[in-house]
């Protein structure tokens, strides 16, 4: 949901992935074992007891906060536009988070292979909370966007640690089940965010939506400090590196190229067609720089080999690339749908933030139920790709039906369709994570997870930016068509949730009709992305998690 979507999903929802560390005595989750551990796992002492549960609690809180932060922004957006008196930046409120996450995720994937998992994870949580604090105190739209970018940076560090911790705590045969259980706990953030966010906006202000996760972040830091110990997962012949040698292995240049490349792309998508024309130099120049920088990044990765941010040995894994594509499309579906349905409920329907949040619950509820179904099903079948295929078949159908909503009909139709959309996407959303655990050795899991996170972050960020451009363009045109005498610029300055108050009753119906048409036309983006998920589903390798890894 607004990966950060939902997923980003949103939900990023790539977002709902996980990991752990340390030894002890009894094995409290023994019932989840399917088969004996793989050869790679035979000599590993997995953590147990209070340390295990503290680490699992810290992971769950981290996932909860990530889900909360991704979903809550969609409910807050209309109120934020009211205070800052602009809708021009609505795409950046989510895209800045995803941009920062995507640009640095490979860097943190590499960092986790060289430095203490515990230390990097703690830094990630602290950075995430600093971003939340900046958002809470932001005096302007620009500062709020900066806070979102800082939170995205912290999220990038957290994600890599979650992948690593899950691999360190459980054998492969248990990871599908544990991942789904943790995802279910983490998805509470997604489920409760619309309601919590709406209630906070109504009772206090939109700022409380971001300040609320700071106390939980402090608790997460304490649990991580106590529970996570350094892993014994390493190859027997692996050399011990000095700090200087570790720093030499980090691809700083690749990161310095990746950050402006992603930024230029999102700037062009956000400004094109609204602030500047697509043929203007202000759009062409960022696109040219983006192409040059991505070309340079690709060449650098090729030349550096195993020292690169994206080692060729990982990119050669078909399942990783297929999973990245699939995740990017799914996160785009969730992020754009959640973003604009929240705008629809508050702007077109005139509902309060609390009611709009309650109406968003069925989608994230469906997503959470689907996580449990897919986790149990994957553990039973031993295969994850059937659930990806189910997502690719069902999601386009539901997304297509969602474009038929009408504000003169009962809202029940939209709510039911959102429920089924959550179920459809959730069935396959976690499958790339399981594929990652099945095809990569432990030392490459963080880098593989970084690729999946990059896909999820870029999927939500790119399409939130593109949808914001489309929405603003269509909103202006549709209102001009439906209500020719309306001053569109003044209407947009009023903010998304106060548009109704700024127009007379004689023009209300025609303006709302144009508003609804703009939302519906924006929803064609997630419909197209839903269709494109089939590419990732068909490309995924058919591996069993019940078989031993070689």
UniProtKB/TrEMBL annotation:
Membrane topology annotation: Multi-pass membrane protein
Keyword Metal-binding part of the UniProt annotation: no
GO terms for MF: transmembrane transporter activity
Sequence intervals crossing the membrane: 61-80, 92-112, 119-139, 178-198, 204-228, 249-269, 281-300, 320-341, 356-376, 383-402, 414-435, 447-471, 518-540
Keyword Transmembrane helix: yes
Keywords: Glycoprotein, Membrane, Transmembrane, Transmembrane helix
Cross-referenced Gene3D superfamilies: MFS general substrate transporter like domains
Name the UniProt record assigns to this protein: Major facilitator superfamily (MFS) profile domain-containing protein
Pfam families given in the database record: MFS_1
InterPro entries, alphabetized: MFS (IPR011701), MFS_dom (IPR020846), MFS_trans_sf (IPR036259)
Gene Ontology CC terms: plasma membrane
Compartment(s) where it occurs, according to its Swiss-Prot or TrEMBL record: Membrane
Domain spans labelled Major facilitator superfamily (MFS) profile: 55-545
């Amino acid at each position: 949901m607004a990966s950060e979507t939902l997923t980003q999903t949103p939900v990023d929802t790539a977002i709902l992935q996980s990991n752990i560390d340390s030894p002890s005595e009894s094995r409290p989750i023994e019932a989840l074992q399917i088969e004996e551990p793989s050869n790679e796992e035979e000599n590993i002492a997995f953590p147990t007891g209070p340390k295990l549960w503290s680490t699992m609690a810290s992971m769950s809180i981290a996932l909860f906060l990530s889900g909360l932060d991704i979903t809550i922004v969609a409910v807050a957006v209309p109120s934020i536009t009211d205070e800052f008196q602009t809708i021009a930046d609505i795409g950046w409120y989510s895209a800045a988070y995803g941009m920062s996450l995507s640009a640095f995720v490979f860097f943190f994937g590499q960092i986790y292979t060289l430095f203490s998992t515990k230390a990097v994870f703690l830094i990630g949580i602290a950075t995430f909370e600093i971003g939340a604090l900046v958002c809470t105190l932001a005096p302007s739209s620009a500062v709020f966007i900066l806070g979102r970018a800082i939170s995205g940076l912290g999220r990038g560090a957290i994600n890599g640690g979650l992948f690593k911790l899950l691999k360190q705590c459980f054998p492969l045969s248990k990871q599908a089940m544990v991942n789904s259980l943790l995802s279910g706990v983490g998805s509470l953030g997604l489920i409760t965010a619309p309601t919590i966010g709406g209630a906070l906006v109504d009772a206090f202000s939109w700022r409380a939506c971001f300040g609320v996760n700071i106390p939980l972040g402090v608790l997460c830091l304490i649990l991580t400090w106590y529970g996570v110990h350094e892993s014994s997962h390493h190859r027997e012949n692996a050399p011990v590196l000095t700090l200087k040698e570790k720093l030499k292995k980090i691809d700083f240049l690749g990161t310095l190229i990746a950050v402006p490349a992603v930024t230029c792309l999102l700037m062009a998508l956000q400004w094109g067609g609204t602030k500047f024309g697509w043929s203007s130099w202000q759009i062409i120049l960022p696109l040219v720089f983006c192409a040059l920088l991505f070309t340079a990044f690709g060449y650098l990765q090729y030349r550096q080999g195993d020292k690169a941010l994206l080692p060729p040995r990982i990119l050669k894994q078909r399942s990783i690339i297929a999973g990245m594509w699939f995740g990017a499309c799914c996160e785009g579906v969730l992020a754009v749908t959640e973003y604009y349905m929240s705008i629809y409920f508050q702007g077109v329907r005139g509902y309060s933030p609390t009611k709009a949040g309650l109406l968003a619950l069925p989608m994230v509820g469906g997503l959470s139920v689907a996580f449990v179904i897919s986790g149990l099903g994957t553990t039973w079948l031993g295969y994850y790709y059937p659930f990806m295929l189910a997502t690719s078949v069902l999601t386009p159908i539901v997304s297509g039906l969602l474009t038929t909503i009408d504000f003169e009909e009962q809202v029940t139709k939209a709510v039911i369709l959102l429920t089924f959309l959550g179920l459809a996407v959730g069935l396959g959303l976690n499958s790339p994570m399981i594929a990652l655990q099945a095809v990569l050795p432990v030392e490459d899991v963080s880098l593989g997870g970084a690729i999946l996170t990059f896909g999820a972050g870029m999927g939500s960020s790119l399409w939130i930016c593109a949808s914001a451009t489309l929405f603003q363009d269509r909103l202006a045109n549709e209102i001009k068509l439906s209500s020719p005498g309306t001053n569109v610029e003044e209407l947009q300055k009023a903010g998304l949730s106060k548009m109704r108050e700024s127009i007379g009753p004689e023009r209300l119906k025609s303006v709302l009709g144009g508003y609804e048409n703009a939302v519906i036309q924006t929803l064609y983006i997630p419909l197209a992305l839903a269709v494109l998920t089939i590419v990732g589903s068909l490309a995924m390798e058919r591996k069993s998690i019940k078989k031993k890894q070689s």
